[in-house]
Structure formats: C-alpha cells, structure tokens
Amino acid sequence: xxxxxxxxxxxxxxxxxxxxxxPMPMVTLVKTMNVSHLLRLIKKQNIKFNTLMCWCxxxxxxxxxxxxxxxxxxxxxxxxxxxxxxxxxxxxGGINSCDIPFTTDIQQFNRDYQQLTTKVAxxxxxxxxxxxxxxxxxxxxxxxxxxxxxxxxxxFLNPMVMWGKYRKCWFKTTLPxxxxxxxVQMDGGDAARFLEALQQTIYAL
Length: 205
Hints:
The protein is α+β, with helices and mostly antiparallel strands. The chain contains 5 helices and 10 strands; from the N terminus they run βαβααββββαββββα. Strand 9 (167-168) and strand 10 form a beta hairpin. The longest helix has 18 residues, at 106-123.
C-alpha cells in the first residue's frame, strides 16, 4: 500500500523543494562489496548469486526508512511494502521486467523469484506489482564493471542497484555495486549508509 504524505511534515521538506523539479535529480554512488560469503552460501542454500543479492537488497531496503518514500508527479508517497525488480531475458531474446515481493523468509523469496521470473521469460510479459515500493536491480554479469550510471527517465524515479561480474581474488571476492537514487528520496549520506548496511546484511546472511 502507498499513501500521499505532506513533504513539509517530513525531514525531506528541503530536499523536496530543491530537487522535485530539477531536470536531473538522480545521484549515483558506487561501493565495492565483499561478497565472499554469498559465494559460500550458493551451494549451502541452493540459491543463485543474483537471487541472494536481491534478497540482501530487499532486506536492507526494508530497514531503510528513506527507501519507503518516493516522489511521483510532484507529490511524495510513503510505502509500507518493498519489492525487488529484476530484468529478465525472455524466450524470444528480448527483455521483460519482473517485480518480486520481498519477504524475510529467504527460501520463500527464492521460490517467488524462480516462479515469477520463469513465467515472465516464458510468456514474454512483464510482471508488475501495484502498491509496492520498487527497488530496481540490473545485473550485467557478462563482464566486470567498475561503475554503472543508469539513464534518467521521469517514468521511473525508483532507486536502482546495479552490478556486473564479481571478481575473485586469492582471499576474497569483490563486487562493485552502483546505487542510483532520487535526491528527494535521500541525501548522499543516507545513500552511503544504505550501501554500508547492505554490506553488513551480506556479512550477516
């Protein structure tokens, strides 16, 4: 569910006034994550790496108050549910979008992830959830990437977490993660804390 809130009654009042009508209000931060723990869990949990990443993002986002807010059409809305969006390669070679509701039950999230993405791939039809705060993701695992800056479009102001192929070293595996967000939604310091919290979620999983 979502409901409209008065920006002046929140700590985003100044940001709303400054950035709501800005032609380019999106900001991108990049942090290199230690994802060694996720690789160890792939076989133990029988869950794919990208699914584990998406769960960690959903878990961290659900505990980040700023990521329950989103500016839309000159208004500010608050959401009480989080979903993760993934890009799916369909059976015709194109791509579709798939929203997966977040749940703290990682096995249930994995089942939903597999079921929904398989359906989208087979039917070549995007699956969209209404009333959820959507955190977008995009995994370009064909190559190692240092940074990703997404296109800006007023049709999608939601935060995006993006990554490429992880990097195996002798003692750890790392992954540069790009995080794009709307400046009305959060400030740079808030975004930095989100990325640090994401790293802690990965460690704790």
